[in-house]
TrEMBL record, chains A, B:
Family: Belongs to the queuine tRNA-ribosyltransferase family.
Organism placement in taxonomy: Bacteria, Pseudomonadati, Verrucomicrobiota, Verrucomicrobiia, Verrucomicrobiales
Active-site feature positions: D90 (proton acceptor), D270 (nucleophile)
Pathway(s) the chain acts in: tRNA modification; tRNA-queuosine biosynthesis
Keyword annotations of the record: Glycosyltransferase, Queuosine biosynthesis, Transferase, tRNA processing
Region of interest (RNA binding), residue spans: 275-279
Organism: Luteolibacter luteus
Catalytic activities: 7-aminomethyl-7-carbaguanine + guanosine(34) in tRNA = 7-aminomethyl-7-carbaguanosine(34) in tRNA + guanine
Protein name, as recorded: Queuine tRNA-ribosyltransferase
Enzyme Commission number(s) of this protein: 2.4.2.29
Complex and partners: Homodimer. Within each dimer, one monomer is responsible for RNA recognition and catalysis, while the other monomer binds to the replacement base PreQ1.
Gene: tgt
């Protein structure tokens, strides 16, 4: 399912290829997030234009609305959203943690009130697997418990044990039900927890690897911790994960963070940030982010960035600024497209640099220019 | 500039071709409205996919924001909005009438407070021409006064005289300044007023034709009058307009109204309705409009309409309904695209029917099915 094609001689960066039910994914890869069955503001044709190889769907959101039975009965998520390349779904656990109210975690699962109408609901490892099986994603994530940052070591230990117990129940469900993704089989990734403690990260990784999944994610990152802790979480987990399985850092990160993580051996990334900040007028450029609404761009004839895709580069900063001020939806589309292009190009360039054996040079040169912040 | 290619034997419908600075327009034609330099929610690539031959820009909006000097300095509206096919701009008069506050009409022009920041401004025939020249549209509309419905005959008479005096001033400005549109010349259309009075419509049409413009619009329609009065306004104007000049019914209408007007000899239409109602969940179908948010479509696997363009037809009603309920922008895009496709296909089918000499049959068959309202 996963093959390492090249390794960078001077760091842990690696280039790989994943074969999934709906196609091939070249790694390292950035995965656009389609929370509710749509990558916000974009049409699937544009995702193809961007060269998106795999997108995300959020189990929690799709379970609540329109409901996984509706999607299953309409032929599963690929057909529903008219997207025929791979899809990864998360477990729903993180959204229960970040969006739902009155959460109560027990060994059985998590009780909560949903954020839409306040209904009382319960999500369990088995139900998360069942929902994701109904969605028919290529990769389903195991149901885990994500401890907050900061948290007591005691809490982190208990949470980690719970995550391992839930992982076993997920595994049992998978073996019994053999979920499919289109014409192929659904793959399943375990999630390494353990907060900031190296020994807990190791323990979590070893326990999950013992259960043998198709890939492993580093969870519990991007929850408010300093960047240093984020990098350590990766460094403390990666050595205990098998070389021949893909590694996924969930919900990350800025362009420099993604490059740093690739250098530490991570293969997959997803983040809502590129599309979310786009809707507030922030665009990524090789010289760092810019805010398109600034007066400075009123008569700026240049495209957003010299790296812009032609779909966006045909418009001046002045025009996109005007669209933003005028409240035109095209503004949100153009910056969302641009920012995703920036992230997808970043991982594509990283792949190439790894193949050519000069990843560190590429990384340092990118970060140097990006953080000089010449633009603003 | 305009050539009649075919006439329907049983009514006033005609097929024609207009040569403008930025290309050819086949008539009868529907023109999508790009109020603020963007046809709401759509990218120019999609307008091309729709086969849009000409779009509108609103002088009032673009004058206020970003300002016509900004657009002029950035290379005029075609370049600013990255649209290289023809553009028609209105005079700004109608928006002053419908959006601005504290209007005061004098012989000189209209004083008002704008709807964005309440600034006091004045629009005159000369300024409207100057703004449209800065925008560089292919067709500029003369600055007119649009009487409300209903209005006193006395008011309509005075208003009509003012419109004629303003038309002369516009003509003077045009002759003196010779405005351009890209590599070609800008064309100018007069606007027939006269409210509901046949003799006033005739007077207005004759006075404008004496001044000799490139085309003529029927103005003062779609201002709250019954459909019968709308049709009469056309019937009372068309006989006094030259056969060899295009005729434009401003701001209209429903699909049956457009067909009725084509049958009365109108060549050009524009309306914000297809995109505006799309943003509220209404989609046009051959069986009449449907509201996609209705529960009836929760599991409906069919596309919006059997006539849907592939760009939209790949999605089920169930999916689009889900996107609307979830607040996803893609929903607005898909219905806007669909509705414009419906209107553009309507005028394309009308052109074909006229060429084949069976327009009346086409019109009656379309309206019969459309008004049976089987869908809801």
């Amino acid at each position: 399912m996963f093959e390492v094609l090249a390794r960078d001689p001077s760091c842990n960066a690696r280039r790989g290829r994943m074969e999934l039910a709906h196609g091939t994914v070249e790694t390292p890869i950035f995965m656009p997030v389609g929370t509710q069955g749509s990558v916000k503001t974009l049409h699937p044709d544009e995702l193809e234009l961007l060269g998106s190889q795999i997108i995300l769907g959020n189990t929690y959101h799709l379970w609540l609305r329109p409901g996984h039975e509706v999607i299953r009965d309409l032929g599963a998520l690929h057909k529903f959203a008219s997207w025929d390349r791979p899809i990864l779904t998360d477990s729903g656990g993180f959204q229960v943690w970040s969006l739902a109210k009155l959460r109560k975690i027990t060994d059985e699962g998590v009780r909560f009130q949903n954020h839409i109408d306040g209904s009382r609901m319960m999500l369990t490892p088995e139900l998360s697997m069942e929902i994701q099986a109904s969605l028919g994603s290529d990769i389903a994530m195991l149901f885990d418990e994500c401890p907050p940052y900061p948290c007591e070591r005691k809490y982190a230990e208990k949470s980690l044990d719970l995550t391992t117990r839930w992982a076993k129940r997920c595994k049992d469900w998978i073996e019994k039900n053999q979920p499919r993704s289109g014409e192929g089989i659904q793959r399943h990734f375990g999630i390494v927890q353990g907060s900031i403690w190296a020994d807990l990260r190791e323990k979590s990784a070893r326990e999950l690897v013992n259960l043998d999944f198709d890939g492993y994610a580093i969870g519990g990152v991007s929850v408010g911790e300093p960047e240093e802790e984020m990098m350590k979480a990766v460094e403390h987990s990666v050595p205990f994960l098998p070389e021949d399985k893909p590694r996924y850092a969930m919900g990350l990160g800025t362009p420099p963070q993604i490059l740093e993580m690739i250098g530490r051996g991570v293969d997959m990334f997803d983040c809502v940030m590129p599309t979310r900040v786009a809707r507030h007028g922030q665009a990524f450029t090789l010289d760092g982010p810019i805010h398109i609404k600034n007066l400075a761009y009123e008569r700026d004839e240049r495209p957003i960035c010299e790296s812009s895709h032609p779909h966006v580069a045909r418009f001046s900063r002045a025009y996109i600024r005007h669209l933003f001020r005028a409240g035109e939806i095209l503004a949100l589309r153009l910056l969302s497209f641009h920012n995703l292009h920036f992230f997808l190009r970043l991982t594509a360039n990283a792949r190439q640099a790894i193949s050519e054996g000069n990843f560190l040079e590429f990384k340092e040169s990118f970060i140097r220019r990006y953080t000089q912040a010449k633009s603003e």
